[in-house]
Specification:
Largest interface: A-B, 62 and 59 residues
Number of strands of chain A: 4
Radius of gyration of chain B: 15 Å
Strand order of the largest sheet of chain A: 1-2-4-3
Mean pLDDT of chain A: 83
Mean pLDDT of chain B: 84
Number of domains of chain A: 2
CATH architecture of the largest domain in chain A: 2-Layer Sandwich
Number of helices of chain A: 6
Order of helices and strands of chain B: EEHHHEEEHH
Low-confidence stretches of chain B: none
Oligomer: heterodimer
Low-confidence stretches of chain A: 9-15
């Protein structure tokens, strides 16, 4: 085996990357630089598999995340103040390290993006018993976000889902009272900053990872009775619309 | 005792996880049960076979609204079975075509067991994804994940 450092195509980031010299502990664990050879089933690992021996592979093996029930249908209540304080801290932390209003919105959007990627998979998994369908059409995907995903995140579905009348790649989701930004007042000189940029990021992350590439931004559109009313403007990429046209026919 | 090659492929077409194994049902006397019996020449092209079926997967992805896409490709007697999550992560399973009699019955049983197998791996994958130290498209190097996948393999295949 060469001592030179090899390129690890599978590891984009990560706390620690594995090299060809890293042997798995107790023959378990996949090493991308060795490929399937690294976690081959051997005499000793087979023994563990067949006898279901409890084994401590990592310091957290005894209460591993993989043993918990992910399909929990029990609803958990979360205090709104803890959420608001946490979100307030997120905003102020992003604000401190940002260069301007646009930068701050981008940072919040980026934070939401990762949440979106995760929630999408989680919500879809939990929904599997009721509905085994994968979303493959844009409008159905948007409806899924508007109702199911929103319910999972904020307890109720969003208020409206509309398609822009003038521009055919724009869709809008309206929330009359966005939960996250409930207790946030934007100072006058901050222009059109909207802290729901985080929620916009969640939508963008969910859409992107499902293959409906889009850009999502949050805009305040207050009315007399609903001062916090926020519109999430979803600009869908051209290629998605082309695909919709091609595949729009009856499903086989 | 059929041999299998299972891989999880991310949105950037990189393998996130791979596993070679053999069926735990009806083990033969020779060798370690569970250890794959692919010949050396097949072994080295398995990742290529899996990746070459990605085009078919991506076509089927927008035609079918199922998670389990079923048998999608075949390459010189190696079948490729695919599953895709909502977040565009592909699970592929390559295996040799069974040569024994009552093939139809075998295929029918296979389909349901494969579906259960994929569903359980999907559960595991989402658990892994929810970990803040893991982000989309990173390789899954956790020994705990590996152990659980092997237990699922033992249970179903």
């Amino acid at each position: 085996m060469s001592e030179e450092e090899i390129i690890l195509p599978s590891i984009a980031s990560g706390v620690k990357s594995l090299t060809v010299n890293d042997r798995p502990m107790h023959e378990f664990g996949y090493n991308p630089s060795l490929g399937p050879h690294s976690n081959e089933i051997t005499e000793s690992s087979l023994n563990i598999l067949l006898n279901r021996k409890t084994i401590s592979l990592t310091p957290t093996s005894t209460h591993s995340i993989y043993d918990r029930n992910i399909l929990g249908t029990k609803k958990h209540e979360l205090s709104i103040s803890s959420l608001s304080f946490l979100f307030g801290e997120v905003v102020s932390w992003s604000h401190r390290s940002s260069k301007g209003i646009q930068d701050l919105e981008n940072r919040l959007n980026g934070l939401g993006y990762k949440i979106g990627q995760r929630t999408l998979e989680l919500v879809k998994l939990r929904e599997r018993f009721k509905n085994t369908k994968r979303e493959i059409r844009l409008v159905e995907m948007l409806q899924f976000i508007h109702s199911t995903l929103w319910k999972a995140l904020f307890g109720e579905s969003a208020n409206e889902l509309e398609r822009s009348q003038d521009i055919n790649n724009e869709y809008m989701i309206t929330d009359n009272c966005p939960l996250m930004a409930k207790f946030i007042n934007i100072p006058k000189d901050y222009g059109n900053l909207n802290c729901s940029a985080l929620t916009a990021g969640i939508i963008e992350g969910a859409l992107d990872s499902a293959g409906f590439y889009a850009h999502v931004s949050a805009h305040s559109v207050p009315t007399d009775y609903m001062p916090q009313r926020t519109v999430f403007l979803i600009k869908v990429e051209e290629e998605v619309l082309i695909r919709e046209d091609l595949r729009g026919g009856p499903m086989n | 005792m059929a041999s299998y090659y299972f891989t999880i492929i991310g949105t950037l077409d990189r393998p996130l996880y791979e596993l070679e194994f053999a069926s735990f049902k009806n083990p033969t006397a020779q060798g370690v049960p569970g250890k794959s019996q692919f010949s050396a020449s097949v072994k080295e092209i398995l990742p290529f076979i899996a990746n070459s079926s990605l085009d078919v997967v991506e076509d089927a992805q927008w035609n079918s609204n199922q998670f389990h896409l079923g048998k999608i490709d075949a390459f010189f007697g190696l079948q490729v079975n695919g599953y895709i999550t909502q977040g565009n992560i592909k699970f592929l399973l390559c295996y040799e075509t069974p040569t024994n009699a009552n093939l139809a019955l075998h295929a029918k049983q296979d389909d349901t067991t494969l579906k259960q197998f994929f569903n359980e791996v999907n559960d595991l994958y989402v658990k892994c994804l929810l970990n803040p130290f893991y982000s989309v498209n990173d390789a899954i190097t956790s020994p705990d994940f590996d152990l659980r996948v092997k237990l699922i393999v033992r249970k179903y295949l």
